[in-house]
From TrEMBL:
The keyword Phosphoprotein applies. One of its GO terms (cellular component) is cytoplasm. Gene3D superfamilies: N-(1-d-carboxylethyl)-l-norvaline Dehydrogenase, domain 2 (1.10.1040.10), NAD(P)-binding Rossmann-like Domain (3.40.50.720). PANTHER family: 3-HYDROXYACYL-COA DEHYDROGENASE FAMILY PROTEIN, LAMBDA-CRYSTALLIN HOMOLOG. Belongs to the 3-hydroxyacyl-CoA dehydrogenase family. This is L-gulonate 3-dehydrogenase. SUPFAM superfamilies: 6-phosphogluconate dehydrogenase C-terminal domain-like, NAD(P)-binding Rossmann-fold domains. The keyword Transcription does not apply.
Amino acid sequence: MSLFQFAKSHSGLIGRSWAMLFASGGFRVKLFDIEQQQITNALENIRKDMKLLEQSSSLKGSLSAEQQLFLITGCSNIQEAVEGAIHIQECVPEDLELKKKVFAQLDGIIGDDVVLSSSTSCLLPSQLFAGLVHVKQCIVAHPVNPPYYVPLVELVPHPETAPVTVDRTHALMQKIGQSPVRVLREVDGFVLNRLQYAVISEAWRLVQEGIVSPSDLDLVMSHGLGLRYAFIGPLETMHLNAEGMLSYCDRYGESMKHVLKTFGPIPEFSGATVEKVHQAMCVKVPDDPEHLAARRQWRDQCLMRLAKLKSQMPSQ
């Protein structure tokens, strides 16, 4: 059984992560790119990442790093790349016309048994897959950056996507150790980004209005809400913080509505506030490539250790 990973010259972290995840599940992966050097670079980076993961006992799947690396090959001919594929994961930049061009090309060479999936984080399936012959086989599978350490995948169907396409993709994501969620109909931002933007919006307003400093704002999440939400979501939190959901809404419903009515308009994310936040962030992490890369590496190590802890927790 083979699995085709579609990535273009700017695939970067997302494309490499997908390849590693699919290989961890025992699938053969073809990494496609129009430039051979991009394929070479991707394979070298994947090898380095897998070896480091194996050394730290964090490699996913039951196969060794060498066994997984053996499953990943590069291909610069799209016709050869899709041969034998059961799943195609597109990872080109967030450019609607570019993605539509890619899917139109794939639509003309695949059969009726291949899932066409996009990694887009914001483009709607109705935009991406409009007019395709194989639209019933099309779906968005939006990962969270970095995908290897954060397992959530949002599955967003086109209005004409066949239920079997959703089911197949859901099963595949579970097979490679991800945590797929079904978004029942498309909506701007999907689910994760809508929640994320709501938090960012209120965080920005609190800093802009002088309620809290940027650094303390981040502490509220990392040392407060974030600890709780690493294991349970906001709805279960409500359920547990009273004698069930009905009790919580009865007890706190009016207070929540009162606070929510005080929320202001959507921030502009510009001007004096962005300068203030930028300066505060740079005190902690200077915005040069070296410091940012080091902090991302630290973040990924933290996520890796958290993922390991979560995997050891008894399932409820």
